[in-house]
Amino acid sequence: MTRNPIAYDRREVAIERFSAQTGLRSLVVPVFDTMPTDRFAELTLKSVEAVLGGRLTPEDTVVACSTAEVAAMYEDLGFTIAPVEAGEDPPPDRPWHVLLRLAAGDGTWRHLAHPATLDVFDRYRLDEQVRYFYCHNVLGGAVFPARSIDTTLTFALTHEIYSYGERLDAVRRFAQAIYDHTVPGGVWVNSDVCGPDGRDRTVRLRLRDDDGINPDKPRTDLAALEQQEIAGYVESLSTRARLDQFAADFHFPLPFSSTIALADAMEFLEHKDYADNWLSNP
């Protein structure tokens, strides 16, 4: 998912600057980031209504949108769509393509941006700010130059590196990369889940089997289903049956009768209720 690296207030300034230069009156409304939802158009209209005090209707509003999925949501509500870039043949670069040129140090981005944008970017040195943003594999080598970062914050990341990498060796490599790019006296703040002490100790795990269905065996075809279908199936399982499905999908140690290693019990109990993103659990 793409995120805009420019703060909202700077983007608002650029829009107002554009409005003044072109003689087009503008009203700017922030639309806050949300999880993907089929109600995105409705939520946006409600945000506009809350800020401006009036609701946009198909009778007084045309929606300019080049993203087909989003445009379809507004069409379902009766709005006329101006397809912008999607209406051109061949289609021109989209805004994020221009942004990627800027991030890569390609000066041709300036030929595609409006003078109002250039004015704001130059005054606030926003081009330098954009080039600070990186998208890299943290285990693929150095991300930042040595001794260049004073504070690093990571959230719910190290357990993913442990699970999907080479376990503790991967975490050590990651920690070394953090150390290498940190200035002397710098700080790394890491927030993540922790495994229990005595992880191999056997514990008794009692799970309900009356709170859902109990198939004879777990399914092996979940990866071929849509996310909503997976979630619906997982939510229909009893807690006991959900353990069997967890074992099938993530190579969890079985067979299980009533005892299990403490670490394995904790792994299941921490993840069993994440039906919406079941296959990306561990």
Provide the gyration radius in Å.
25 Å
Structural class: mainly alpha
Instruction: Please identify, by name, the CATH architecture of the largest domain.
Output: 3-Layer(aba) Sandwich
CATH level 3 topology of the largest domain: Rossmann fold
Instruction: Indicate the percent of residues in helices.
Output: 40-55%
Distance between the termini: 20 Å
Whole-number tally of structural domains: 3
Summarize the structure in short:
This protein is mainly α and 282 residues long. Helices cover 42% and strands 10% of the residues. It has 3 domains: 8-130, HUPs (Rossmann fold, 3-Layer(aba) Sandwich), CATH 3.40.50.620; 149-191, no CATH class; 202-280, no CATH class.
List the helices and strands and how they pair.
Blueprint (H helix, E strand, L loop, with lengths): L7 H15 L17 H13 L9 E3 L3 H9 L3 E3 L12 H9 L5 H4 L2 H10 L1 H5 L18 E7 L2 H7 L2 H15 E10 L10 E3 L22 H10 L2 H12 L8 E3 H10 L11
Parallel strand pairs: 1-2, 3-4
Antiparallel strand pairs: 5-6
Characterization of this structure:
- The protein is mostly helical and 282 residues long.
- The protein folds into three domains: 8-130, 3-Layer(aba) Sandwich (Rossmann fold), CATH 3.40.50; 149-191, no CATH class; 202-280, no CATH class.
- Helix content is 42%, strand content 10%.
- It has helices at 8-22, 40-52, 68-76, 95-103, 109-112, 115-124, 126-130, 158-164, 167-181, 227-236, 239-250, 262-271; strands at residues 62-64, 80-82, 149-155, 182-191, 202-204, 259-261.
- Strands 1-2 form a two-stranded parallel ribbon. Strands 3-4 form a two-stranded parallel sheet.
- α3 (68-76) links the parallel β1 and β2.
- The longest helix is centred in the N-terminal third of the chain and has 15 residues, at 8-22.
